[in-house]
Amino acid sequence: MRKLVELDKRDKHEVSVIIKWCQQDPFWSTNILSAAKLRKQFTMLALQKKNEGKTRQSKVTRKETLPDWADHNQQCSNDKQKDLTDDQKAKLAEQLAELNKTEVKGDA
Predict the structure, then answer these.
(1) What is the pTM of this model?
(2) Rounded Cα–Cα distance for residues 76 and 87 (Å)
(3) How far is Cα 22 from Cα 30, in angstroms, rounded to an integer?
C-alpha cells in the first residue's frame, strides 16, 4: 500500500475507497488478493468503479416473448376455450375405446 501512495502518488482516501469497492465486487474480490496485484490493477479498478454507474444505467433490457406453447397464461385461456360438449366427450370415449382394443390385439 505504501508504494501506491508514495511512488504512484495515489491519494490515501482514493486507495481506501478502491480497496473497499473491489472487495465487494464479485469479480475483483477473487482477483485482488495482494498489495502487488492491487497496485498493478489500480488504474483499471478506478476506471471501472467510476464507470460502474454509467454502464448499469445504460443497459438495455428487452422483454422476452415466449412462444404460444410455452406461455402458461395462453395455455390457461386455451384450456377454458376447449370445454367439450357431451356429444364430443362421448365420441372421444368411443375413439379411445377403439384405440385400446387395437392395442390389445396388437400386443397379443
Answers:
(1) 0.47
(2) 23
(3) 9
Identity of the residue numbered 66: L
Q: Residue count of the chain, please give it.
A: 108
Tell me how far apart the 2 most distant CA atoms of the chain are, in Å: 92
Distance CA 92, CA 86 (A): 10
Which residue type occupies 108?
A: A
pLDDT single digits (tens) 60-95: 677 878 787 776 665 555 555 568 889 999 999 999
* Rounded Cα distance, 47 and 86, in Å: 71
**DSSP characters over 27-79:** THHHH--SHHHHHHHHHHHHHHHHHHHHHHHH----PPPPPGGG-HHHHHHHH
Burial zone of 45 (CB within 10 Å; 0-12 exposed, 13-18 middle, 19+ buried): buried
End-to-end CA distance of the chain: 84
Q: Do 84 and 92 form a contact (C-beta atoms < 8 A)?
A: yes
